[in-house]
Design goal:
Elements: H1 4-35, E1 36-40, E2 46-50, H2 52-82, H3 91-151, H4 160-177, H5 181-200, H6 209-228, H7 230-233, E3 239-240, H8 259-262, H9 270-296, H10 298-308, H11 310-315, H12 320-346, E4 348-349, H13 356-369, H14 374-390, H15 398-401, H16 411-425
Antiparallel strand pairs: 1-2, 3-4
């Protein structure tokens, strides 16, 4: 014990020193961002105010977090790396893995009735629309990008371009030709898939950082074209009055031929929200089903072979050109489906909805969830999108930091902080194991220690 005491004092001193340095760095970083604020008074003059309590509270949280990491989490991470790799998963993990997917599917199916039972018709719209539909859109986008990044190993920073192509294709064709949503949905996916193939041809010889730069440029090119082709896209003003989907020709409005009147119900906007929820749920489940089936086919195994080693993939006789093009086409198709749904749900689209931040968010969902993992991507989408939306409900924090405190302004700050924690705790994502597409005699999960860093 006597020998261990000096080491403990040294560790404590180092932890305090690191915490103090981190707090000082946080103070210098947040001083211009949070400590000072510009406001306009009644004479329309711009004046500078200070928010010292909020600044010192954030600095104290950062310092305490660094101290807790040095004293608790860092030793735990070191011990965790020294543990022997388990030959088989624990019993509770096996049960969890077996029943989690059926339970999750059942929960999302009964989510609208459950929310209505808890909040009533008036309060259920927010929880079904802002949380349920919004999260499912990003789950679908994450699963689509997971084909390109997680399965094929092709880093795509311009995925939002296909999302925009699907949205604008639906909006323009619906307003010009008056076609229904169910007719334009597959057409928007086909057009997005076509643009995915067009992107795939120039990047056939690129990988890694070079591929990321080209896909990023492609996404910006699409956005700039949307902004400047005013005659077609209406530029920054966007496209409004996009037709809404109907239930076998029955619109969700207050007219005599509307959904409520046809079924003898009192009119409520909740009916349309519930209908849209189940539409995006069906599209998301279709995306997951097709992805799982494709992984078991030769094209899916070719994607995974391409991700692991392109040179070895070519030596086995696999056509890497077709493999890359199919990955881009399939991922873009699902983004087109999600874009067409986004357009009909909003009724209005503009270039501001398809910025690089959207691509970064979708890519973050794939990486944090675990590249190649369907369940991991879904969990990451729930945590990221649901977590940022729940910030709108934290009005009680105004009682702590003052009436001018707006929690929504710090969503991205907390999002970045959470990403850092996840990368420290689970550097390969939330789901670090991967089920093999093909197996010999017995199916076994691949341990995270046997997966190369950066490959899932």
């Amino acid at each position: 014990m006597a020998d261990g005491a000096p080491n403990q004092r040294v560790d404590m001193a180092r932890a305090l020193r690191d915490a103090g340095f981190t707090a000082l760095l946080a103070f210098a970083l947040f001083l211009p961002l949070i400590g000072f604020q510009t406001v306009t008074n009644i004479r329309n003059d711009l004046i500078l105010t200070t928010r010292w309590p909020l600044l010192f509270a954030i600095v104290a949280v950062v310092g305490a977090g660094r101290l807790a990491f040095s004293l608790v989490f860092e030793p735990w991470l070191k011990q965790r790396t020294l543990r022997p790799v388990a030959a088989a998963p624990a019993g509770w993990r096996a049960v969890f893995a077996k029943w989690f997917t059926p339970f999750a599917i059942g929960f999302v199916i009964v989510y609208p009735p459950l929310v209505i039972a808890l909040n009533g018709f008036g309060g259920a719209v927010k929880w079904i629309d802002n949380f349920g539909i919004q999260i499912l859109i990003y789950v679908m986008l994450g699963w689509g990008l997971n084909i390109v990044v997680g399965l094929a190993g092709l880093l795509d920073l311009g995925y939002v371009a296909f999302y925009a192509v699907g949205a604008y294709s639906y909006a323009l064709l619906a307003k010009t030709f008056g076609l229904e949503f169910w007719v334009l949905l597959p057409l928007a996916g086909i057009l997005s898939s076509f643009w995915g193939i067009l992107l795939g041809f120039p990047v056939l010889r690129l990988r890694g950082d070079y591929l990321a730069i080209v896909t990023l440029a492609f996404g910006e090119i699409i956005r700039i074209v949307i902004i400047n082709w005013v005659d077609l896209t209406n530029g920054y003003a966007g496209i409004s009055g996009i037709p809404r989907p109907t239930l076998f020709g029955i619109p969700f409005n207050a007219d005599d031929n509307g959904f409520a009147a046809v079924f003898g119900l009192e009119f409520s906007p909740l009916y349309r929200v519930i209908f849209l929820y189940y539409v995006i749920l069906a599209l998301a489940l279709l995306t997951a089903f097709v992805t799982v089936r494709l992984r078991r086919l030769p094209v899916g195994r070719a994607w995974e072979a391409l991700r692991e080693d392109e040179i070895a993939c070519r030596s086995l006789g696999i056509n890497t050109t077709n493999t890359k093009l199919t990955a881009f086409a399939m991922g873009a198709m699902f983004a087109g489906f999600a874009g067409s749904f986004f357009a009909t749900r909003q009724g209005f689209i503009s270039p501001e909805s398809f910025t690089f931040l959207e691509s970064a968010t979708i890519l973050s969902i794939v990486v944090l969830g675990g590249m190649g993992s369907q369940i991991g991507v879904a969990i990451a989408a729930i945590a990221m999108i649901g977590g940022t939306e729940i910030m709108r409900e934290l009005d009680f924090l105004k009682q702590i930091f003052g009436p001018t405190f707006d929690p929504t302004q710090y969503r991205m700050l907390l999002f970045g902080f959470a990403m850092v924690l996840i990368m420290i705790w689970r550097p390969r994502g939330l789901i670090a194991t991967r089920e093999p597409s093909v197996f010999l005699k017995e199916r076994k999960s691949i341990s995270a220690d046997r997966i190369n860093e950066g490959h899932g």
